[in-house]
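Practice problem 4.
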């Protein structure tokens, strides 16, 4: 009896590959509804931009590779429409049935507001699949649009806006909430807005889009529209099979990535994981988590005992070359999660001034009661990824700000200043905690 994996991208293939390593004889079948597997959705905006020339460059492995090199039976065009756990089988749209002993659900998530009036018009796009990106690129080349509206200021919306602006379009982003990058953080949103404006992109927040008209959205004239909002986990077949969903609406899992049905695992954008700052379930769909949680699901499904501890919600996005990196919680989010937050915000040079240092903004948030760090953000053209990764490590290891301030970090003028901006922020935060 086989291990069956539903979904053939980050989580599904990480799971299948890991299961193969654990058990060289296990029969493994991957069922993917689309025409391709193993592609990097994260690279789609750079294909739209033109930096990635061939869309095939975004595909890491083919089904043939998995068949030949890993002895994994990967089937494309295989859409699962139902799971019958009592019978231990999945039902495909074609009517075929595939029996399983263990099942991994890695069906990802979807977005794009398909029920919005006008969403099916030919100048309206999403940016989730290779087909989406190819269609958008073709439209740019053949129709030469002059202006675009992007709905949603999450990182996909912002990356799409950056890519379209670099193609010469006038771009306006419309966002329903008051925030950019899905973070309740007025300072971060102001910085994103400033950087977008410097490059000719307008960000309008608090705009609820109720329909798309052929030549405008919410009063903003445009030749094309990108829908980058309404992201939700693909859980319908799981829920119909009696698999429990968590508070976010994604599939509830334990630290082995197992669901409430024994022998059925879930990982990636369709599943919840534990937030290590709160200890509670969370849904932050990212490729980093999909790969790691997928590996654990695959190992456990193949009989090993591994666990996925959880995440702290770390991400980074480039907006016209400026890195916007966040981890854990903003002050407002920390308060909403029940912490009593103190915050420090500083601006410092990324390197010594005599070595062309550029301004870097750092925010650190700690809980007043425990002095533990619970969040942070870094904004800068230089070194933002490395700095947020240090803060993320501190969150993951439950470090107190007093320990963080003592970190032994590298220093040499071509890379960093003697007092790294994150340590300056920690010193400032310690002062705030006294106040
Ligand atoms: P997916 O990649 O969505 O794969 C799920 C697969 O399951 C799909 O191929 C789908 O066709 C298939 N499927 C669904 N239902 C069925 C069914 N019933 N039967 C058969 N097959 C089914 N993450 C980062 O960490 N950093 C980034 O910079 C980043 N940039 C991104 C940029 C863009 C434009 C996008 C769209 C995403 C980005 N991500 C990024 C997110 C990352 O791509 C996802 O988190 C990751 O792909 C999730 O992997 P997954 O395997 O869970 O789901």
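Answer key:
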């Amino acid at each position: 009896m086989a291990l069956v994996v539903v979904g053939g991208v980050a989580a599904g293939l990480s799971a299948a590959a890991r299961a193969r390593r654990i058990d060289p004889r296990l029969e493994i079948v991957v069922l993917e509804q689309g025409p391709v597997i193993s592609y990097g959705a994260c690279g789609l905006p750079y294909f739209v931009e033109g930096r990635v020339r061939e869309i095939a460059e975004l595909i890491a492995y083919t089904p043939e590779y998995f068949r030949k090199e890993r002895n994994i039976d990967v089937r494309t065009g295989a859409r699962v429409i139902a799971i019958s756990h009592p019978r231990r089988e999945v039902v495909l749209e074609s009517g075929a049935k595939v029996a399983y002993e263990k099942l991994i659900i890695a069906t990802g998530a979807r977005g794009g507001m398909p029920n919005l009036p006008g969403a099916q018009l030919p100048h309206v796009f999403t940016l989730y699949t290779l087909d989406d990106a190819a269609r958008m690129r073709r439209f740019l080349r053949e129709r030469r649009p002059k202006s675009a509206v992007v709905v949603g200021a999450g990182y996909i919306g912002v990356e799409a806006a950056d890519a379209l602006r670099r193609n010469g379009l006038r771009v306006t982003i419309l966002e329903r909430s008051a925030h950019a990058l899905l973070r309740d953080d007025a300072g971060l949103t102001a910085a994103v807005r400033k950087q977008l404006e410097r490059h000719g992109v307008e960000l309008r927040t608090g705009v609820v889009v109720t329909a798309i008209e052929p030549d405008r959205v919410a009063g903003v004239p445009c030749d094309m529209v990108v829908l980058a909002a309404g992201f939700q986990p693909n859980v319908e077949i799981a829920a119909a099979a009696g698999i429990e969903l968590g508070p976010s609406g994604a599939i509830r899992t334990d630290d082995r990535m197992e669901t409430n049905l024994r022998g059925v695992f879930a990982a990636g954008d369709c599943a919840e994981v534990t937030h290590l700052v709160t200890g509670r379930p969370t849904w932050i769909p990212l490729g980093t988590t999909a790969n790691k949680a997928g590996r654990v699901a695959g190992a456990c499904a193949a009989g090993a005992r591994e666990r996925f501890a959880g995440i702290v919600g770390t991400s980074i996005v480039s907006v016209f070359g400026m890195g916007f990196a966040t981890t854990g919680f903003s002050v407002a989010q920390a308060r909403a999660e029940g912490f009593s937050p103190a915050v420090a915000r500083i601006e410092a040079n990324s390197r010594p001034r005599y070595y062309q240092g550029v301004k870097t903004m750092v925010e650190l948030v700690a809980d007043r009661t425990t002095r533990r760090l619970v969040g942070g953000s870094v904004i800068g053209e230089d070194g933002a990824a490395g700095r947020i990764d240090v803060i993320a490590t501190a969150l993951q290891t439950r470090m107190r700000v007093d320990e963080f301030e003592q970190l032994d970090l590298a220093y040499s003028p071509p890379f960093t200043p003697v007092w790294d901006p994150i340590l300056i922020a920690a010193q400032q935060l310690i002062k705030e905690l006294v106040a």
